[in-house]
Design a protein that fits this description.
about 190 residues; about 55% helix
Length: about 190
C-alpha cells in the first residue's frame, strides 16, 4: 500500500516535464511527504535518528516511480510517431493525460536536443547488450535456457556436434571456426 500511495501521489502531483526526480520542484516533494505522513505513521520518527533514512527512502521510491512513469510516456510517444512524426504523437496523448500536458511533455522534454541525444545513446548501448536484464522470479539461467530451446535462431544441440550423453541444459555452441568442445574436454 505504501508504494502504491507514493505512485499515486507522484502521478497526481508532479508535472511530467521534469527530466529527472532531482530536478522536480521542492514544493511537489514536500506535498508528497505531507501526504505520506498523513496516511502512514512517520511523524513519530521525525526527531529520531531514523528520520533521515525514512525521508531518503521516500525520495528513492518517488524517484523510481517518476522514472517508470516517464519511461512509459516515452514508449507511448515512440509507438505513436516518435521522433519521425512528432505531430502524430501529439495527436495521441495517453488516456489518462490531458492533451495540453502531453504536448508540453513532448515539447519540453522528449524533443529537446539533450534528451534526444541521451535517448539515442541509450538506444545504441541497449543494442550492444547480448542478453536482456532480468530481475524477477525467474533466474537468468532459466530464461536463457527457455530462449535457447524455443528459439529458431539457435541450432539444435546435436547439430553442433555435442555429445548426446551430456547435460543439454548447458548450451554447447561453437566459436567462430573453432572445433566444438564438450564438457569432457574442459
Amino acid at each position: 500500500m505504501y508504494v502504491r500511495k507514493i505512485s499515486q501521489e507522484v502521478d497526481s502531483e508532479v508535472p511530467y516535464h521534469y527530466s529527472s526526480w532531482k530536478n522536480v520542484d521542492a514544493k511537489y516533494k514536500k506535498a508528497i511527504l505531507a501526504t505520506i505522513a498523513h496516511y502512514f505513521d512517520i511523524k513519530s520518527f521525525q526527531n529520531t535518528e531514523h528520520w533521515d533514512a525514512i525521508k531518503e527512502s521516500i525520495q528513492v521510491e518517488c524517484a523510481s516511480r517518476f522514472k517508470d512513469r516517464k519511461s512509459g510516456m516515452k514508449k507511448h510517444f515512440d509507438r505513436h510517431g516518435g521522433y519521425k512524426d512528432v505531430e502524430e504523437a501529439k495527436r495521441h496523448p495517453p488516456e489518462s493525460m490531458d492533451p495540453e500536458a502531453w504536448c508540453k511533455l513532448i515539447d519540453g522534454l522528449f524533443t529537446t536536443p539533450e534528451y534526444m541525444n541521451r535517448s539515442e545513446k541509450n538506444k545504441a548501448n541497449r543494442a550492444k547488450q547480448l542478453y536482456g536484464s532480468y530481475h524477477g522470479s525467474q533466474s537468468l539461467a532459466n530464461r536463457r535456457q527457455k530462449e535457447v530451446t524455443t528459439s529458431t535462431k539457435f541450432p539444435k544441440y546435436g547439430a553442433l556436434g555435442c555429445n548426446q550423453g551430456i547435460d543439454t541444459s548447458r548450451m554447447c555452441k561453437p566459436f567462430q571456426g573453432q572445433k566444438v568442445r564438450n564438457e569432457k574436454t574442459f
